[in-house]
Structures are given as C-alpha cells and as structure tokens.
Specification:
Layout (H helix, E strand, L loop, with lengths): L20 H17 L9 E12 L4 E12 L2 E12 L5 E8 L11 H6 L3 E6 L28 H16 L5 E11 L1 H12 L5 E5 L19 H7 L22 H6 L5 E7 L7 H18 L16 E2 L4 E6 L7 H12 L3
Parallel strand pairs: 4-5, 4-6, 6-7, 7-8, 8-10
Antiparallel strand pairs: 1-2, 2-3, 3-5, 9-10
Helix pairs in contact: 3-4
C-alpha cells in the first residue's frame, strides 16, 4: 500500500535522511500544530507541587500515594490542578507512567495502580477536566489563561497534553524517578492526547495510545466500515482541535498530513498503539496502517520499527519486538488491564 502524504519527503521535496530527520520532525510538528491541534504555548519557567495528603500503605502496602497540586505561571496568573501520584516504597528508582485520566479516582476501572506498582513502576494520573472542560467553553480552567487564535490556537487536546508535560516537569526530578524512562498514556480522546504530548515532549521515552481512533492513531485515507470520520469528530467535538482542522471535515484527503505523521513525530523513541477487536468506531485496521506507515522512520533511525504483519492483525496478536508496536485485543472500546500489561511488556523489552 502507498501511504500519502509521503512521510519521508520534506515539503520542499527533499528526502529524509538520518541526519536531517530532526528538521523533518520539526516540520511535522508545525504542520500538525497549524492544521490539527493548534500551537502549544511555551512551557513555564517553573513548576511546583504541593503535597496535600499522603497515604503510606497503598497497593497492599507496596506504595505511597501523594495527592498533590501542580502549580505554574501563565500569562494571566498562576494555574493549579490536582494529581494522584503513586510511588513504590522500596527506596529504588522506577520508571514513571503518566496517565491522562477521565476521572480523578484512586481506584478506577481504567487504571490498576496495584498491578502497575508491583511491576516496578511509579504512576501519576490527573483528570483531564481538572485542566479544562471537555466542551466548547474556552473560559474554563487553563483555557482562560492563554490568548488563543481561532484558526491556529490550541484546542482542548493540546491543553490536556500540555498539562501532562507539566506533571513530568514536577515529577522527573524526584529521586525515586528514573527520568530516562518516562511514559505517557491515554485512552480514546486521551489516547490522542498522549500521542500529541509525546510527539512534542522529547523527554517522554514511551508513548502509549489505546483506542485513539480518528484524529489519533487511525490512518484517515483508508477508512474502514463503521469508522469515525473527520466530519463526525469535528461535528461533535470541534473544540478538541484548532479552527483550521474543521475545513477538512468534508475533504480529509486535502490534509497535508495523515495520522502516521503524528505517530512518526515521536521517532526514534518508543510508541505502542493498542486497538480492540469490536471497536470499529476507532477503526482498528486504520490504527494498524498508521503504525505500518510510520515505521520507515524508525527503520531509518534505529534499524527496527514495526515488526508485525502487514495484513490485518488477528485478535490477540501483539507485535512488541520492534521500537514501534501494535496490538489487537479482544473486546470493546475500553481501557483494560490487558492494555496496561501489553504496554508494560513492551516497555520491559526496551529498558
């Protein structure tokens, strides 16, 4: 299959090489900023955290839970949002997984702190609506604190991604965190967010997307039956994106990119894309095709990209050996323990 637009060619026609990939990556980030997610403001000079409460015997006594408030300056004053931070209590250094969450619950159906802690990770999560509302109100939360151009200003996905990077600002310097092994993850719209966060933030080594679908991991130019379209997503959730993205609702082929650009922008770091067999709306095969289309960048830079099949994946297949992975589990649109364990198995191959 020929994937368009061509990932390995600059806008001016030059071919991508290992030596100029950094420039091509910047070009891709600019395209995605201008045409899909909006431009992200500069990071704040300083991020602080205030521990509000501590529980010392979480996860069968294997972890400490710190409820913490993250604070940083914006053009319109300070902004604060809460996080939950689980750290193993064994005194060692640990990889950190940052989850962009739908809820701010200690135990939630979409995450499993005890299992994650027991596999040797620290875990932080924040509720996305504590950053800004999941709606068209750009006066809520952080949205009210930055100037925003309607055409190219950041949408809500960009704001949630920005918040995830601020969590990393705070936690990466803690003595128990192995800052060379940080991951960011999310499900559905927050899987899109994790991909955009990882594409921009090169401190993140592992970028983990679950059922992110249209305008996330799924390749749009090969839409499959039942898959969400740009017309669908911009009709219901235009505020997730910059204003420019709406012009592609009826002509997605006019985009100067496709979603394999988003995945490739994290190269040569590690990306894992998970799909679910019954989640047609997220277009499982479209997600796999994006992984296949993005693989040449990793092959150029690291020698190994996606090491899986080119045919449509079968239920239960996991292709974790490369630096870019794809997995298809059984089930519906959900963030399961299977998904977490797939990611931890993938990360374990690369630490």
């Amino acid at each position: 299959m020929i994937f368009e637009p061509e990932l390995m060619t600059f806008a001016d026609g030059r071919q991508v090489t290992a030596e100029n990939w950094a420039d091509r990556r910047k070009e891709i980030i600019d395209i995605l900023s201008h045409e899909e997610y909006g431009y992200t403001p500069a990071a704040p000079a300083k991020v602080t955290g205030t521990v509000v409460s501590t529980e010392k015997k979480m996860c069968a006594g294997h972890a400490v839970l710190e409820k913490t408030e993250i604070t940083f300056d914006t053009p319109s004053g300070p902004f604060t949002f809460p996080i939950l931070y689980f750290r193993p209590n064994d005194g060692g250094k640990h990889p950190l997984l940052v989850q962009i969450c739908f809820r701010n619950s200690i135990y939630d159906s979409y995450w499993s702190p005890e299992e994650i802690i027991d596999r040797g990770y620290a875990l932080a999560g924040f509720c996305y609506t504590d950053v800004t509302g999941d709606n068209g109100d750009f006066e809520s939360g952080i949205a009210a604190l930055y100037p925003r151009d309607e055409k190219t200003g950041w949408g809500k996905i960009g704001m949630w991604a920005f918040a995830a990077s601020r969590v990393i600002d705070y936690l990466a310097e803690k003595p128990e965190i192995d800052k060379d092994n940080i991951g960011v993850c999310g499900h559905s719209r927050l899987g899109k967010t994790a991909l955009w966060c990882g594409a921009q933030d090169e401190r993140i080594k592992f970028i983990l997307s679950n059922c992110s679908g249209c305008s996330g991991a799924a390749y749009e130019r090969a839409k499959h039956e039942g898959g969400e379209t740009i017309a669908d997503i911009t009709g219901k959730f235009p505020f997730w994106f910059c204003g420019n993205y709406l012009k592609y609702a009826e002509k997605p082929e006019a985009r100067p990119f496709d979603q394999h650009f988003l995945i490739a922008a994290s190269a040569p770091r590690y990306v894992s894309v998970n799909s679910a067999s019954l989640d047609n709306w997220a277009d499982q095969y479209g997600e796999q095709l994006s992984v296949i289309a993005a693989s040449p960048v990793w092959e150029l830079l690291t020698g190994t990209g996606y090491n899986g099949v080119k045919r449509r994946a079968k239920v239960g297949e996991r292709f974790l050996s490369g630096n870019l992975s794809y997995s298809l589990r059984d089930g519906v649109h959900f963030f399961s323990r299977n998904d977490w364990n797939t990611w931890m198995d993938f990360i374990g191959k690369h630490i």
